[in-house]
């Protein structure tokens, strides 16, 4: 009985080693497929962020009460946070590209989107916490929140010129989803 267990354990070890070895031998998407997936995730996100940014600008100049502006801005920043998280999840779902530095590059995209998501969430929470009784103080608080958001957003941007993979650079230049 003891030899059966030892034999079974040995076979299990071989099977697990084979699975690990095969998992390490690729299985990720090609550079072109990954770039297409990432651009497919980022295109609607950019469109949504652009729309939300325009709406935010309108809210800053609209003749509304502070309470109305607060409600609208909280909703807008919540939408931007959700859009950023949706894009981050899609990039995560795209997997790790089979390319030089694929893991690092994929992680960079996910991290950047996560930081943008968090910046929008902090802006939303800041504005949500502002009192609306004194309009000047409210709008000063909104301006400060938007300035902080812009700084955090700029700091979280991924510098795609530092992609250390020629095949991914080429894929981003060539796939239709990225044009």
Q: What is the C-alpha radius of gyration, as a whole number of Å?
A: 23 Å
Intertermini distance = 64 Å
Number of strands: 0
Instruction: Characterize the biggest β-sheet.
Output: none
Helicity, as a percent range = over 70%
β content, as a range? under 5%
Q: Which consecutive residue ranges, at least 5 long each, have pLDDT under 50?
A: 1-25
Q: What is the molecular shape?
A: elongated
Going by helix content, strand content and strand pairing, the class is mainly alpha
- What's the rounded overall pLDDT mean? 83
Number of helices: 6
Characterise this structure.
The chain is mostly helical. It has helices spanning 2-24, 31-61, 66-93, 102-128, 135-156, 166-174. Helix 2 (31-61) runs antiparallel to helix 3 (66-93) and helix 2 crosses helix 6. The chain is elongated and about 55 Å long. The N and C termini lie far apart (64 Å). Mean pLDDT is 83; it is low at 1-25.
Could you provide a short overview of the structure?
The protein contains 6 helices and no strands. By secondary structure, the chain is mainly alpha-helical.
List the main descriptive attributes of the protein structure presented here.
single chain; mainly alpha; elongated; disordered N terminus
Tell me the layout of helices and strands.
Layout: H1 2-24, H2 31-61, H3 66-93, H4 102-128, H5 135-156, H6 166-174
Helix pairs in contact: 2-3, 2-6, 3-4, 4-5
């Amino acid at each position: 009985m003891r030899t059966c267990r030892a034999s079974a354990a040995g076979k299990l070890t071989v099977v697990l080693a084979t699975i690990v070895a095969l998992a390490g031998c690729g299985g990720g998407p090609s550079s072109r497929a990954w770039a297409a997936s990432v651009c497919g995730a980022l295109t609607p996100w950019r469109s949504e962020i652009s729309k939300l940014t325009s709406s935010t600008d309108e809210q800053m100049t609209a003749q509304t009460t502070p309470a109305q502006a607060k409600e609208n801005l909280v909703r807008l920043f919540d939408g931007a946070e959700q859009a950023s998280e949706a894009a981050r999840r899609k990039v995560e779902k795209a997997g790790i590209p089979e390319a030089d530095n694929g893991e690092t590059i994929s992680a960079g995209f996910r991290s950047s989107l996560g930081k943008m998501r968090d910046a929008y969430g902090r802006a939303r929470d800041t504005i949500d916490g502002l009192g609306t009784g004194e309009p000047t103080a409210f709008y000063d608080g909104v301006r400060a929140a938007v300035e902080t958001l812009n700084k955090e957003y700029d700091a979280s941007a991924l510098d795609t010129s530092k992609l250390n993979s020629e095949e991914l650079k080429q894929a981003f230049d060539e796939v239709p989803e990225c044009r």
